[in-house]
Amino acid sequence: MTFATADLYDELGESIQSLPMQFRAFGRRTAFDGPIRTIRCFEDNALVKATLATPGDGAVLVVDGNGSLNTALMGDLIAASAVANGWAGVVIHGAIRDSVAIDGLDLGVKALGTNPRKSAKTGAGEVDVVLEFGGVAFRVGVHLYADEDGILVER
Questions:
Q1: How far apart, in whole angstroms, are the C-alpha atoms of residue 132 and residue 138?
Q2: Angle at 65 between CA 87 and CA 84, to 5 degrees
Q3: pLDDT tens string for the chain (155 positions)?
Q4: 81 vs 3, 75, 77, 103, 131, CA distance in Å?
């Protein structure tokens, strides 16, 4: 499926949500889309690792790390696991690490930035819950579209 978020917004208007936050793009997939899965965690990536190690079936994992840039919630090994398991992309309201290696992977990644510091691994957080950041609600199963111009989420 080929799409441009600008064209989708022109077509759908206010029936689709546009995330106004500025994310950096990583990975070889500059455009990606799929049904949403969610994780809420803070400076702990155990749930991200566990989830991306399961079949993605073309889904997009949205991770709300509360915008923290203090630790990375995904690195190259976890991103490679996402590729191996068929995930279309990952949107992280937080940081990643190993950005150069991730740029070589067939995965779409949007994150606020990078930090080489690894996160905790206790498993704290919640999976498949409604997330909200930037005034946009991210619900499990709802479709997300991302490209160079931004991120759109069905209502």
A1: 6
A2: 20
A3: 689 999 999 999 999 999 999 999 999 999 999 999 999 999 999 999 999 999 999 999 999 999 999 999 999 999 999 999 999 999 999 999 999 999 999 999 999 999 999 999 999 999 999 999 999 999 999 999 999 999 999 99
A4: 26, 10, 6, 14, 23
| Segments in 2-126 forming alpha helices (H) | 5-12, 46-52, 76-84, 99-103
130 DSSP assignment = -
What pTM does this model have? 0.98
- The answer to whether the beta carbons of residues 151 and 110 sit under 8 Å apart is yes
Using CA atoms of 116, 62, 2, 20 in order, give the dihedral in degrees to the nearest 10: -90
Here the tokens at position 50 are 């566990």
Residues 109-114: contacts with CB within 8 Å, 24+ apart? 109/25, 109/26, 109/27, 109/74, 109/79, 110/23, 110/24, 110/25, 110/26, 110/146, 110/151, 111/23, 111/24, 111/26, 111/74, 112/21, 112/23, 112/24, 112/67, 112/69, 113/24, 113/69, 114/24, 114/72
Residues shown for the chain? 155
